[in-house]
Design brief:
By secondary structure, this protein is mostly helical. About 65% of the residues lie in helices and about 0% in strands. The chain has 6 helices and no strands. Helix 2 runs antiparallel to helix 5. The N and C termini lie far apart (about 100 Å).
């Protein structure tokens, strides 16, 4: 009678963590959609030499972030940002997405792209 333990439900299967490339794409798209490309680029460029130290700071902040915000894949982001080459990939992707956003905005307004304007008014255009 006392020897039986109550049956516990099956634990949920562990969530699959995204790859570095998927995480870079997701973070870059979120930054550009919020129009934070310039401040994010400034912050990432200035912290690139200290990417490992910065990622350890994010580890320290982890419990506070978990308590205050619902941030999925926070641990995967911290591991991704530890590597300098991933910081560079993130910067490049942010710049690509921001340029795409700006060129679409110019097209809606009917303005030429900066590259097209430079070619039309460059040397030999007379």
């Amino acid at each position: 009678m006392w020897s039986r333990r109550p049956e516990s439900p099956e634990p949920p299967p562990p969530a699959e963590e995204p790859t570095d490339e998927e995480l870079i794409e997701k973070v870059a798209r979120e930054i550009v959609s919020r129009r934070l490309a310039a401040p994010a680029t400034f912050m990432l460029e200035s912290s690139k030499p200290l990417s490992f130290v910065a990622s350890q700071g994010l580890v320290v902040l982890g419990p506070f972030v978990d308590a205050a915000l619902d941030v999925p894949n926070y641990d995967a982001f911290v591991r991704m940002i530890e590597k300098r080459e991933n910081v560079e990939k993130l910067l490049v992707r942010i710049e690509e997405l921001e340029e795409d956003r700006l060129s679409r905005a110019r097209a809606r307004k009917g303005e030429p792209s900066p590259g097209v304007e430079a070619k039309e008014h460059g040397p030999g255009a007379d």
